[in-house]
Amino acid sequence: MNTYEPVMGLEVHVELNTKSKMFCRCSADYFGKGPNTHTCPVCLGLPGSLPFINKEAINKCIQIGLALNCEVSEKSLFERKNYFYPDLPKGYQISQYRWPLCINGKITLENRKVIRINRVHQEEDTGKLTHQGGETLIDFNRSGVPLVEIVTEPDFREVKEIRDYAKKLQQLLRYLGVSNADMEKGDMRLEANVSVRQVQSSKFKVQNELPKYRIELKNINSFRFMVAAVEYEIKRQIKALEKGEKLAQETRGWDEDKKCTYLQRSKEEAHDYRYFPEPDLPELIIDSQNIKKTRDSLPELPWDKSKRYESELEIKKADAQILTDPKELADFFEAVLEHGKKHGVGVKEIANYLINKRVDINSVLPTQIIEDIKGKKVGVIGDKEELEKIAKEVIDENPNLVIVYREGKTTVIMVLVGAVMKKTLGKADAAKVREILVELLNDPGV
Amino acid sequence: MKIRHVIKLANLPLAPEEEEKYSQQLSKILDYIKELDSVDTSGVEPTFNVSGQKNIMAEDNIGSCLPQDEVLSNATQKRNGLFVTKGVFEE
Amino acid sequence: MQKSKLQFKIQNLTELTLIETIQALKEKQFSEEELNKAYLDRISTLNPELNIFLEVKKNTRGIPAAIKDIIVTKGIRTTAGSKILSNFIPPYNATVIDRLLEHGISVIGKTNCDEFAMGSSGENSAYGPTKNPWDPTKVPGGTSSGSAASVAGDMCVFSLGTDTGGSIRQPASFCGVVGLKPSYGRVSRYGTIAMASSFDQIGPITKCVDDARMVLEWTSGGDSYDANCQKEKEKFTLQPSRLQVGLKGLKVGVPKEYFGKGLDKGVEKIIKEAILKLEELGAEVVEITLPHTEYGVAAYYILVPSEISSNYARFDGIRFGHARDQFGSEPKRRIMLGIFALSSGFYDDYFAKAAKVRTLIKQDFERVFEKVDVIVGPVSPTVAWNLGEKIDDPLKMYLSDAYTIPASLAGIPGLSIPCGFADNLPVGLQILGKHMNDELVLNVGEIYEQATDWHLKKPDLRFKI
Question: Nearest-CA distance from B41 to chain C in Å?
Answer without folding.
Answer: 6
